[in-house]
Design brief:
alpha+beta, four-stranded antiparallel beta sheet, two-stranded antiparallel sheet, 10 helices
Length: about 300
Amino acid sequence: MDFGQYGNTWWSRKWLETLLAGADASVVATGLRYAIREQVKSIDIVDNRVISVVKGPNGGLHNNYIVFPLFARERCEMFMSLLRQQPSEMLALNNKALNESIEILLAKSGLQLFDDPEKVKMGCDCRDPLPCKYTVATFLKIAEQANSDPGVLFKLHGMDLSMAKNFTAAPADLDAPTESSLVRTLGKASRLVDDDAAEAAPGNGRVDDLDLSEDSSASLFAGTTGSSSRTPPQQLPQFDFGEWKDYSRVLPAMLQNFPKFCPPGTSRRTLPTSWKAATSTFAATRVLTSFPSTSAHTTRRRS
């Protein structure tokens, strides 16, 4: 169905198509003509209620009302929380637009932006079957506003999208990571330092400072057979993973719902498994470091 200038954007077009899916084509055409001729004299939106005045063909004024279902507060807060985790969605809203992916966030929050006409209450003093040509003209003028500001569609359900910029979710009762030891990269070398000793003099960390004049990885195999590096071997940072806390339960809750590395949204379920696998790998690495180097072992076998 062609709505002309009133369906220029995908969201306003879909909103009209959903609301007017069961409307008579001739009624929609008449309502479109009324909207183009500026016969909609006034539209007032108060919360989820719309009251409009439309001029009829004989000059008479017809009053009509439309009531949209209100969004539940809990679902609104859930949507706001999900929305703040999606920078692309926030950027689109700041530019007065909507990405089609916002429907995923709406579905996960249990919200329906594109209303089922059976859930929308409407009335008009013309006594024609609803939706009549006057309510159709009102829908079209609302869609025209939504073309330049999609927040109008949310406002019809009692939600103010401007709150998303300052929305703060309720604090979760989680054991957030507070490791005191961090790995910081300095130039091409790394060292293990404490937060409290970050500004202390060199040498106060858990391991001796590395020589920052070279890449420590270049001297990893220094002195072994086939090595072209003349740099003497240096001690690399030793990590005691046994002292680290188990955050396999906390980390999934800190992830976004749809991270780029896992579009299906299953990252929260698969992360604990990956965490355990990584822990096993680290443990195996610690065991391997206790064996002689491969080159030295091969030299002894040849001798």
